[in-house]
Amino acid sequence: MQHQIPVSDLGPLGPVMAEAVQKCVHCGFCLPACPTYQVLGEEMDSPRGRVFLMKEVLEGRVALDEALPYVDRCLGCVGCVPACPSGVGYGELLTAFRAHAEPLRARNVAERWFRWLILATLPYPWRFRWAIRMGRWGKALSGWLPRRMAVLWELLPERLPRAARLPAIVPAEPPRRARVALLVGCAQRVLAPEIHESAIRVLTRNGADVLIPPQGCCGALAAHAGVLPLARRLAVRNIKSFPLDVDAVITTAAGCGSGMHEYGLWLRGHEYEQAAVDLARKTCDISVFLDRLGWRQPPPPLPRPVRVAYHDACHLAHAQNVRQEPRRLLRAIPNVTLLDVPDGEFCCGSAGTYNMEQPEIAQHLGRQKAAAIRRTGAECVVTGNIGCMVQLARFLAEPPAIPVLHTITLIDAAYQEKLLW
Ligand code: SF4
Ligand code: SF4
Question: Whose CA is nearest to atom 8 of ligand 2?
């Protein structure tokens, strides 16, 4: 698409936005892949429409406030990226555009307070834990709250697992075959620490030393919300902390993995840019690492045959092109019949803070995904992202409830020869 974006006025991310716009030939192949276009049926709620709108804003032809409702309704699921024959870097464009727009936009007091609450708590495990505890006291009031706030309360877990203290290093069961560092991040550490425990058990059992350096949130939540200065600070903390003399830096949450792969983008033109690129190159999802490493001993059979649906997290499948690796690992477990979810390429509506910021669309997508999972006849569903797990659990809770597990949790359960439900 021809454009007149004033690239040099837009800082280090200006060329990123201009390149994405330029590559778009307006063909529309991305439209059927876009969940918001499928739900809302509006051109401006499609990837093609949003690329055009962002271009118009950057050129000064359309007011930012007119474009923002359409950009805000974008899930950031990047389902449009694999569908695009021209290689438009939609994910990079969206990250850069949201960072550009955030300081310029007007937000009312309620929006500002809501975002402060999210960004001041979720990325910090201890604060998040306390916020959940405090929030549970106010849960009875959720029916009286504005919709967005009520969703926040609805999402609070009934039960909070005990905080797990993780050692700095867990040695491999000999002989050692690899040495990795594990991202434990923020929200997952509070909501589902058993995922990290399973990851450590499976990695060490398969011969990998696991290092757990001091660390914090990967920054993906802040970047998704357009608050790039915070995302950069969090990224730099991890860049300084994670060693690079390891075989891989392992992530167990798709959102964190795709966020860390964007470190080079977030820190473009920054003194840590090269270090950010180096860490991003080392980063890989646990399913990719285990698939590449190969089993030392494949998992033994589950105690009985189980039909398992695999849900593709957008930030694994679309953002990291990781589709086959988790499936290969799960198929290697005897007694597992692996099922694909119909229309599995569509987002479940979780998308970072989207299920709180756009609750109606998120609920529509959540119900749609839950119905598709039920149609498979699966007894449980597995996925590789904590955000998807929370969203799916919410919509699969009605009887007959379907348990939602992380991929690595099911593999660990197989090694322990037990079922978890
Ligand atoms: S498929 Fe790609 S090139 Fe075609 S309209 Fe969509 S973003 Fe533009
Ligand atoms: S990121 Fe997802 S919601 Fe946004 S335009 Fe692309 S496919 Fe649509």
Answer: 34
Nearest to 406 by CA among 227, 256, 220: 256
pLDDT, tens digit, 9 for 90 and up, residues 320-347: 999 999 999 999 999 999 999 999 999 9
**Interaxial angle between packed helices 109-121 and 147-154, expressed in degrees from 0 to 180 and rounded to the nearest 10:** 20
Which ligand is closest to the CA of 84, given by its number? 1
Round to whole Å and give the CA distance between 338 and 158.
Answer: 30
Q: Which atom of ligand 2 is nearest to the CA of 78?
A: 1
Mean pLDDT score, 230-235: 98
Distance CA 14, CA 20 (A): 10
How high is the pLDDT of residue 47? 98
pLDDT in tens, 41-63: 999 999 999 999 999 999 999 99
To which residue do tokens 């509006």 refer? Answer: 42
Q: Which atom of ligand 2 is nearest to the CA of 36?
A: 3
Tell me, in angstroms, the distance from the centre of ligand 2 to residue 350's CA.
13
Across the chain, mean pLDDT equals 94
- The pTM score is 0.94
Six-digit token string for 196: 């990290």
In 171-278, beta strands by DSSP E: 178-182, 208-211, 248-251
Closest by Cα among 194, 199, 196, 275 to 238: 275
> Cα–Cα distances in Å, from 110 out to 137, 241, 298?
21, 36, 52
Contact 30, 86 (CB under 8 A): no
Ligand nearest to the CA of 29: 1
Q: Copy the structure tokens of residue 218.
A: 């990967």
Q: How far is the CA of 98 from the centre of ligand 2 (A)?
A: 14
CA 75 to ligand 2 centroid distance, Å: 6
Cβ atoms of residues 204 and 173 within 8 Å: yes
